[in-house]
Amino acid sequence: MPRRQLRVTGAAEAPLRAALRALRTTLDVPDAFPAEALAEAERAAAAPRLPDHDATDIPLFTIDPPASVDLDQAMHLSRRESGGYRVRYAIADVAAYVTPGGAVDTEAHRRVTTLYFPDEKVPLHPAALSEGAASLLPGRSRPAVLWTIDLDEDGRAEHTDVRRALVRSRAKLDYAGVQRAIDDGTAEEPLALLRDIGTLRERLEAERGGISLNVPEQEIVERDGTYEPAYRAPLPADGWNAQISLLTGMAAADLMIASGTGILRTLPTAPDGAVGRLRRTAKALRVDWPHHVPYAELVRSLDPRQPHHAAFLQECTTLLRGAGYTAFSGGEIPEHTLHAAVAAPYAHCTAPLRRLVDRYASELCLAACAGAGVPQWVLAALDELPKEMAEGTRRGNMVERECVDIVEAALLKDRVGELFDAVVVDVKDNEPAVGTVQLTDPAIVARVEGGPAALPLGERLRVRLTQADPTAAKVRFAPA
Q1: Which residues lie below 8 Å from residue 8, measured CB to CB, with a gap of 6+?
Q2: Tell me: the pLDDT tens digits for 171-186?
Q3: What is the pLDDT of residues 125-148, one digit of tens each?
């Protein structure tokens, strides 16, 4: 599922760095890797555990942002002679390098996920692995977990195979280049099929009531001495690529449920109150949401290239915050297996370089597909994994939230005292004069307090900026 992305560019970078450094200290974000973990990673990079099956003849390619070097996935798409499609999806085999209970494994359990700050990332694994030996970089043979998923002509999965294999990516592509090649007709069939398969999977997603949020990347840039937000709207190719990952995650969940042992990514249906708040936010951003239109249908109608739609899609991520991990074993399938946004059982398995649980999910799926026993090191960790992932996700969400607060405070720091148009989107139950407002322009959500009367929930309100302090990550308004 998408997360809010922030990237600081140009002159906006300098005044934010101190606040971001302080945030890393406050949140006790891991710093450098221990020397023992670095040494172990170097040894593993030089001598990985290689698989018997050789699939280096498959001309795989990766699709990532241009600067990315921690490449988890590579794909190849083809038509089947009998009709339909074949998706081959190689996932970096981190277990070929990480020894259970070793120094790298111990540090990965401490970090849980890669953390993304506007100015840098804090990786899950040492760079020798995540950006080197384990990454599916082009022109280099790598151990991988190779998924082969056969689809019918409508894009529905018919058969899944998972095995360890040696693979070799042929090309490192980026989203803009992929979009251009597909649009102008120069893409060869394995890439051109991304649109065909992605569109079919999007149609199936709509049929089952699933939702993919095309959340834009937010940039904070400096223009004429002031900060302004800008958005990079996702391209259709972003969504088609995401559908391949979702397809694999759904196939992984089906394998685990069928085998009776696994760990799922689950999300309950959003409560009415959360949807009601989102409706008020839509009103603040002038997004037309008729009462008879379901949430999923509205999201699919939005254009992330329009600033107000982009801001609303950012706020839609609030409905994903109840997601968690559900582990099970011994054939006892949990009562709740669905991910509400996917509208199907789903598992995280396609980003093992950046997320701890995916390494375990790969092992569970390999065992399920082979009809073999699950490795003991996986079973031993299964009960604690949901709690570890919950804590790691909580820290990641806090990093994201605090970074947003810092950047928004920097955006407004020279505008204290100015008036803004806003809509009240939330009011505290026991303090009706305190609540939350959504600014119309710029699209910022912040606390409002200090007025003599109860805030008019869902109504427009003129507010005055009273505080914008990047060092404290605070933005405050008061009724004008």
Answers
A1: 16, 118, 119, 219, 220, 407
A2: 999 999 999 999 999 9
A3: 999 999 999 999 999 999 999 999
Best CA proximity match to 16, nearest among 410, 416, 400: 410
Query: Which pair of structure tokens corresponds to residue 254?
Result: 């089906």
Q: Taking the CA atoms of the chain, what radius of gyration do you get in angstroms?
A: 23
Whether residue 445 contacts residue 315, with contact meaning beta carbons closer than 8 Å, is answered with: yes
CA 36: distance to chain centroid? 30
Q: Which residues pair with 338 in a beta bridge?
A: 345
In angstroms, the CA 19 to CA 22 distance is: 5
Which residue(s) pair with 362 in the sheet?
A: none
Model confidence pLDDT, tens digit, residues 296-320: 889 888 887 776 787 788 778 778 7
In whole angstroms, give the CA distance from residue 91 to residue 147: 8
pTM (2 d.p.): 0.87
Which amino acid, one-letter code, is at 195? R
Give the containing element (helix H, strand E) for 356.
helix 356-370
Whole-number Cα distances in Å, 273 to 209, 279, 364, 449: 20, 10, 37, 22
Among candidate residues 382, 267, 407, 388, the one with its CA nearest the CA of residue 330: 382
